[in-house]
Structure formats: structure tokens, C-alpha cells
Amino acid sequence: MMLADLMAIVWIPDILQFANIGTSPATVLSVSILMLIAYSLLLMAINTLNRLARSKNALKSIANVSDALPLPDQAPEETVVRRINRGLISMRCFVSDTNDLNRRWHSYRYSEPISTGSRQYYLAIERSVWNRPFMSTDETILLTCGEILTESLRVGKTVKLLRTEAETDALTGALTYRAFIGHLKSLQTENVHNLVAVVYFGVEHLRAVNEHYGRRIANTVLRSVSMRLSRLMPENATLSRVSGAEFAMIITNVTSTDDVEELTVRMRNLAVMPVYTEEGEVSVDVSSSISFSNETDGFSVLFADANAHIYESESANLSVVDDAEAVLAMQNGSGDYFNASDVLRSAIENNTVSVLYQPIFNVNTKRIVSLDTIVRVHDKKGRTLTSYFVMAEAYRLGMSAQLTLDVLDTCVKDMTDFRKVAPELDIVGIYMNGSELTNSRFHERLEQLTHEQPHLRFGLQMGSHAIHVLHDEADDEVTDLAALPNVKLGLIHAGTTYSEIAAFARLPLDFAQFDETMVREFRVPRAMQIMQHALNISRDNGAYQVVFNGVETPEQVDFIRSIGGSLVEGTLLCNAMSANEFLMRLETMGTVLPDAALPQAEQA
């Protein structure tokens, strides 16, 4: 522009003279001045229009950035740069880690420093020497868009922090149930063909741990299980706490169901190791189950299983199971505290373990068909250790086999007395941890009872822990047990562990006992399907029986009858009793269930 002005000043008079417009110097000067004025006005107009266009482009760049709000969490600066470049002409905006670039034949302008906490960078505009010079509008773009980006990063960080706090369980560090469901929904939306697995881990009987050790120790156990599960969790997985004592792990892009099953076993084996606390070692039992999406049903199976697992948390209501006498006094540091492990060890060594009997009724014939056993241990003041604690702690102490043998001998003695009054009673259920299966004394005793008590049968009940022991080391021993004429093998807590699927296929099972949570949630479609499927297996195999545990309402009895079930146990029909109490019941009532026990069920 300056060169054009110089040329105009030098050549205009000569041009006028050459054109013979006038020979008078005054005339030439006047015309020259007028033409310079016109030329200046033209240049001013062009410059003004150029500035207006540059201002328009600046506003357009800022508007483009504003339209992109809220900026994405990943690389928001790239979005800002891309939007700015849409409005700029003959210039380039980019992200620079420094504000002292020195490229030859180029000049730069920079925004204020933008910090993400771990990184500091600038928005920069570059122009070459042949392009238009910088204007204040260019600096306005950098200033305004830099402030937008800085504020967006601040808001995003705050929102992420709030979301993390809202979606993270404060106790265990795992995600919440709301985040778990949200993740499943997002996976379903993103890719319906993505093979996804959900693995559930349940900390069994957390309430009993709380009662014996206190809430602080129970929380320590829960945190330890969460940390152990997270330790083996793959990168394509997330862990959520979906209820008080249950965790769910979502695994995406699954390539092999066998790998997931193997991972589940390894995670569970780590989780069930004793937890070391300030009160000593605490036994832990963890169940597991797996759900897979499929091409036919998509994610519907996963959502159905998620609904089925929303049972009320065991730790949500930590009331005392065995009356207030059972609560330990460790919280207040009083002299009333006792070491539960020492009490249990002494009871097993001195054979002072007692047994309660829970009748199992056939609701069609209204008669007792068998008995379940519940192990009880008391301290010197009569305080009771819960059955779960007794079984789990006995396993940790390496005394499970001795405990089961003590219970077995007690049952033989008591059943002999019961059969004098009710000869039709010939089967009693005894719970096993699994370590009994590799104990030679246990096998020898059962073989001996085959000859001593040929009319008495023993239902050996296996929970999730026993199933894992079988899977790892005791398959042959189970085959030997199943060959004994007076031994029946069965699963308890059915419907709550994935291990049952493999167990049904490879173990010679005679019965299954549904967990009380399944019966309690009998209206849940998934629970109904599981129970109905088990009954179908029972119909196909006449020797296989299904027992429904935890029956507390007539509605539950009506449901069991409606799907073809008949064997039930629970407080609605009869409470657990000591041997003397049950013998008295047999002498007065026999094995018959009173009509008044099922007032509404009879009307069904």
C-alpha cells in the first residue's frame, strides 16, 4: 500500500502532463491533490472493509467455538483450534507448548497460558511475511477462545470430580449401582454386537461378620474384597458395588467365555483369603456368578440378571440374628468381650457343639420328609455364634472335618431317638465346607455308618466353597461318596452362584436347595425362571429333588405349588428346634403339618 502511494505521488503529475490536461503548474498540482484525495479515500474504504471482514471472521471463529460448547472431555483444545480455523483466512491456529516460536519468515501471536494441571500450553496464530499483518481482532480471538477453553477445562474437571464422587462408593472405591446400570446402557447403545460379560461377587453373610467383630471390621473386610477384586481386574473391565455386600464387574469385548470363567475363579480364590485386621484373621466367603450378552437377546439377559441381583443388602440391616446376647462387646472395650475363634476352637476340641433341626415339609402330603441341621456354638455366658461364622471360621482353623464328624455323630444319636417315634424319618442334611472330602477319617466314618445304620441316609450339602474345592482337587472323592448307599449329595444356596451350572453337569447330585433370597424374590422374572428350570430337571430325573428354603409367607407357598414344587422349609411352617424339642413335637404331633400352618395356601 505504501508503494502504491509513492508511485501515485511521483507519476501522477507526469501522467497529467502527458495527457495534456493542463500546462499550468497550479492546475497540475490541484488535480494531483484531488486525485490523491480520491485515491486515499478509496484506500481507506478498502482498509475499512478489510477490517470489517477480519472482525466478522473473528466473531465467526468465536461463535464457532461457542457452538461447540460443552467441549469434549478428550482433547478439547483440538476442537477449539479446528473451530477457529474455520473462520480464519490466510492464517493458521494451532496448539503450542511454548510461546516463543521462531520460524523464519513467520510471526506469531499467543493466548494466555492454559493449564490442565499436568500440562501447560498456548493457543497460537501463525502468519507468513506474505500474508496480511496481525490485527487486534486476531488477539481478541486468542484471548476470548483461550478464556473459553480455560473455563471449559475448569468446569469439566469439576463435573468429573462431582460425577466421580456421585458414582463412586465411598467405602470400597468401586462404582455405584447407578453407574453400573449407566455403563451397561451406554455399552448397549454404542455397540449391540459387543460381547459383554457381567461377573457378580457376593460377600456371603457380611451381617454375621459385623455381629462378631463390629461394623468397623466388617467394613475392612468389604474394602479388602474390593481391593483384591480390583487387583486382578483387566483393563477392559469396571467394578461396581451393586448392593451392600455384592460387587459386579463388567468386562467388554469378550473374546472367550472360558477366559472369563478362569478369571472369575482366580479373582474369587484371591477374595476368599482371610482378611488380616486389628482383631486378627477374619474368614471370608465369596460367591460368584456370570452373565453373558448374546447375539439373540443382546443385553436383555444382562439387564434381567442385574434386576435379579438387586436383593436387599445383608449389610443394610445389621440387626442381631441370635438375640442381643450374641453381639460382642468389643466396640466399647468392656471386659465382656470374648474371642470368638477361641470359643469355637474349644467347642470343637471338647465336642460341645450343639445341633438344631429344621424340618423340611412336603406341602402336598403335609408331612415332614427330612431334617436340616444348624450348628450352634455357645460361650460360657450362653452367647451364640452364628452358623455361618462357625462354618467359615472352622475352615480357616483347619477344623472343618472334625466339626462335621462331631455333627455327624450327634445326628446319628438324635436320629436314632427320632426314629423310635417316627420310623419314616430316615434322612438328615449336613453342611460341608469341602475340606472333609479329602479327609480319610470322614470317608471311613461314612462307610462305617453304611453298615451300622443301613436305614439312615445322610444328605451331604455343599455350598459354593465346597464346589470350588471339588473342582480343584476332590472329584474322585465325590464319586466314592456318591457310591455309598446311604449318602445323598446336594447343593445349597442354589440360584446364587455360577458354579452351580458346572456342578449340575459333572457332579452326581441328588438334590438342590434354593437359597432363601431366591424364594424371597420369587416375583422377579429371573428368579422364577431359575426355579422353574430346576423343577424341570427334577421332573426329567425322578430321583432328583428340589427344596425351597426360607419360606415365610403363604404367598410363597402358593407360588411354589403353582410351579410344581412341594418340598419347603422355613419359619412359616416350623422353626428350628433342639433335639429334645423336636422329639417332644414328634411325640405330640408326629410328622404331620397342622392345617392351621397354611391358612391361605389351602384356599389356593
Describe the structure.
The protein has 604 residues and is an alpha/beta fold. The chain has an 8-stranded mixed beta barrel with strand order 11-12-14-15-16-17-18-19, surrounded by 6 helices. Strands 1, 2, 3 and 4 form a 4-stranded antiparallel sheet that branches. Strands 6-7-5-10 form a 4-stranded antiparallel sheet, with helices on both faces. Helix 2 packs parallel to helix 4 and helix 12 runs parallel beside helix 20. The chain is elongated, with a radius of gyration of 40 Å. About 4% of the residues have low confidence.
Summarize the structure.
This protein is α/β, with parallel strands linked by helices and 604 residues long.
Main attributes of the structure:
alpha/beta, four-stranded antiparallel sheet, 20 helices, 19 strands
